[in-house]
Amino acid sequence: MKKANIAAAVIGMGFSSAAFIVTLGFKKFKNVPIGPEFFPRWLAIGLFVCSGVLLIQALRVKPGHDEPAPTLSPLDRGMRRLLIGAAIIVVYAVSWNFLGFLVATPLGIFALMFLLGLRRYRVMIIFSLSAMLVIFCAFRYLLGINMPMGLLDGLF
User: Fold this and answer.
1) How much is the pTM?
2) What region, left, alpha or beta, does residue 145 occupy, with left being phi > 0 and alpha being psi -120 to 50 degrees?
């Protein structure tokens, strides 16, 4: 497991460094104290710190106390759910501009809740629509950010 943790830590540190460098090129806005780079930059810093802690822990493991790393298999039920969840998110992101936020978001939330095992359909529909409405209103009216409307373009 020591080699796997070292490899994961180095990959995580490399990925976080690349993400941090990308945030340096984000557009700066005048009179905006927190710009679009704030959240991704802090996520990159957090990933770098966590990867560093993992690296230190892996290097401190004494020889002989190392246990083998578990293998990942797409046949594992949890791994299949992870891959299906990632596919749902990719389909959601790809369909966002075509279907629009108001159509794609409830469908994506509903699909993820179904994947996680929830079968109370009335609750799932109400939650999906409520979450979409709250997010839409927050972005549209509080933040002044227009969401892609897709099929419903021209209604709002």
Assistant:
1) 0.66
2) beta
Does the pLDDT of residue 153 top 80, yes or no? yes
Residue with tokens 């227009």: 146
For residue 55, the tally of other CB atoms under 10 A from its CB is 18
User: DSSP states of 35-54 as a string?
Assistant: -TTHHHHHHHHHHHHHHHHH
Distance (Å, whole) CA 26 – CA 107? 31
Query: What average pLDDT does range 70-95 have in this prediction?
Result: 91
pLDDT of 134 > 70? The answer is yes
What are the distances in angstroms from CA 36 to CA 29, 32, 76, 130, 145? 9, 10, 38, 26, 13
For residue 68, which phi and psi values (nearest 5 degrees)?
Answer: -70, 145
Tell me the domain boundaries of the chain: 2-60, 77-152
